[in-house]
Amino acid sequence: TQGVRPELANEFLPRLSALLDLRRIGPRDEVRLLSDRGGDLRRLEVHPGTPGEAGAVYIVNRDSTGFRAWREDEPLRRVYRKYEGSLSGSLTASLKRAGILAPQVRQFCTIFGEDVDAAGARAGDTWTMLTEEFVDPDGHLARPGRVVGGRFTSRGVAHEAVYFDPQEAGPAPV
How many CB atoms lie within 10 A of CB 135? Predict the structure, then answer.
């Protein structure tokens, strides 16, 4: 809320809470606050990053007639992208140079950080990342998803990780 007066931010929250349980907003969710040059909050958007809410956007807008709150369901499609590269400098810098978005860079570094440190990473080590992303009907990126798999190889030793959530997988076949 930097640059937005707190009393104005507090006017938006009750309207948003009528649509969305604010306690459920977490680290995967994106919150956007849009203000005018005077610091008056004009729009608040919550883009949930949780799997069941992938295409929902919760919006509170303020205009000359007052506040209006609603939910929009974006027609998003989940796609998977594979990125590969080799280490040149830090792992973070190498991932960013490959065009990977900041939330996915943080996830990958969290997943493989200890392996990279333990291996004594060096130039030429390789990495592979599989991500999920949400795109609009035109194929443009709407928002990043999670890292669903990856590999970091140093000195011929591969460290691998795969994302698995048994609740998303559903019941096991009989």
Answer: 15
Q: How many CB atoms lie within 10 A of CB 16?
A: 19
What is the rounded distance in angstroms from the CA atom of residue 113 to the CA atom of residue 25? Answer: 26
What are the CA-CA distances from residue 46 to residues 12, 17, 58, 67, 76 (Å)? Answer: 12, 11, 5, 16, 15
The residues, ordered by sequence, that sit 6+ positions from 88 with a Cβ below 8 Å of its Cβ are: 94, 97, 123
User: pLDDT tens-digit profile of 107-155?
Assistant: 998 998 887 765 677 888 999 999 999 887 777 777 788 999 999 998 8
Supply the pTM of this predicted model. 0.57
For 172: left if phi > 0, alpha if psi spans -120 to 50, otherwise beta; the answer is beta
Label residue 91 exposed, middle or buried (CB < 10 Å: 0-12, 13-18, 19+): buried
Q: How many CA atoms lie within 13 A of 130 on its CB side?
A: 11
Alpha-carbon torsion 139, 144, 132, 27, what sign?
negative
How far is it, in rounded angstroms, from Cα 18 to Cα 4? 22
